[in-house]
Amino acid sequence: MADDDGACWIEDDGLWVPEAPDPLPPANCQGDIYILWDNTQAQGDWVLADGDLQTGQDLETACLVSLFSDALATPDFVPTDGTTDRRGWWADYYATSPLGSNLWQLDRAKATRGNLGLAQRTAQNCLQWLIDDGLASTILVNTQWITSTMMGIAIAITKPDGTETRFMFGWAWDNLAALRSPVRMIAPFG
After folding, report:
1. Which CATH code fits 29-179?
2. Which residues pair with 128 in a beta bridge?
3. DSSP bridge partners of 141
4. How do the domains of the chain map onto residue ranges?
5. CA torsion, points 105, 111, 112, 115, in degrees to nearest 10?
6. Mind listing the pLDDT tens digit of every residue in the chain (190 residues)?
7. Is residue 101 within 8 Å of residue 63, measured between CB atoms?
């Protein structure tokens, strides 16, 4: 016996219990939440599609988060901005391995060949988890100066099935403005 609100009377217990609603449709999740990078604001944001968060672009999102999230600096690092902020991601406290990279530590460094190599190694190291987790079989990172204040980061990821995906990002060397670069990089893996 149901009342006007759709609740059912259960005789044995003497309780009013609402009828079970129709089950929710299965989620249409195709991967990670897609992050769209805004060059003018130097920030990423989630994208809505049909009233839901758009998914996809898993490897690109993983690269963006890994490269441009600030990893915690070692205790001996002295920030060059006059603060004592070693940055880091708040959820690293709960993680088995930290998220992000230390590219931010190069923000005020000189644009030298040596620092370009350091940036390449830093980018390579922060993407290593993709290999460790079986999402990639190889990752190649190349860095080059695009302008005197803009470093290009080219990434080639070979997936376990042998297919390759490439991304290019630009990183403004001063003011820590990371942005997806529309600039043309010449033979990044030549």
Report:
1. 3.10.450
2. none
3. 155
4. 29-179
5. 20
6. 555 555 444 455 555 545 555 554 554 545 677 777 665 555 678 888 888 887 777 788 888 889 988 898 888 988 877 888 888 877 778 878 888 999 988 877 888 889 899 999 999 999 999 999 999 999 999 999 887 777 888 999 999 999 999 988 877 765 433 443 433 444 455 5
7. no
